[in-house]
Amino acid sequence: xxxxxxxxxxxxxxxLLAASLAACGAGQTAAKPAADVAKxxxxxxxxxxxxxxxxxVASLLVMASDxxxxxxxxxxxxxxxxxxxxxxxxxxxxxxxxxxPVLVPSDPLLDKNAPASxxxxxxxxxxxxKQSSSSGxxxxxxxxxxGQQNDMxxxxxxxxxxxFSAGILRVGTNEATFYRRYDSNYGGxxxxxxKNEYTMAARWEGLVSKDGEKTYEVVDAWFDRxxxxxxxxxxxxxxxxxxxxxxxxxxxxxxxxxxxxxTSVALVIPDAQxxxxxxxxxxxxASPAARIVVPVKRGGSEAVLAQVAKASSRNSSASKRxxxxxxxxxxxxxxxxxxxxxxx
Length: 344
Fold this sequence. Notes:
disordered N terminus, 21% helix, five-stranded antiparallel sheet, single chain, alpha+beta
């Protein structure tokens, strides 16, 4: 009986304790000689009916066990349904990669193919602002080529308007982020402009919010450094799927429209302050505000962890963490993808 007291837990343990006490009491009041017990065992068939007392105890044990299982099952189902995890203020949000919209990206333009002159209209969203240093050293007759003619200016070129809220801009080999927050525009890349400068390839891409719809747009253009303006060659866009409300968006990036070849998942986290990738590290100058592309392949796994600024707070230190995990076993028909976020 001491073992029952030592191991009995909760209602299940009380039932076992009651059963043991009943068995002990029955043994004290109805003890039989050893010879009678031996005769009874010899006369009993291999399969016997269970006595009434034993059946009641067995039924109590089964009922208690079923109730405990039902309670546990309900708790687990509710936790999964509500997206909760134990001991942490974190939510899990699974999603299906095959349901994501598809983008087939085009190759960027090259500087060597730039035209001598540009006749197309200039893009309205690309804005160049002269830097304060432009009126300083150059143009004062120091004999440094362009300085004698006073025609070269240093500018901060950024993307503003046309629905762009965050992304990345590249002119030639220079690359920088741009984003809009609290009705103000930030970021941009430094570009020198002047009447003797040549045309360079440019690309800007990022999140576009227009008419209540969010898309990801990639724009290839020529940047005319004589006029310090960009002329669009092509625009490619895809509607975004929302993975974490207001925080993480995604689409499939494929080599063809049917995604029959190489497939990747592009994550768009417009308010990301920093990001790390498990399997395919970001380029040294890559921006977390642009798409983060991770490959999807059988027998592989990828994980992305990002620090995200809270859009509702002006405190620069106010942030939350998000993570996206994608994995597929060698025998899995489809990959599994889950997003995790704190303070959802």
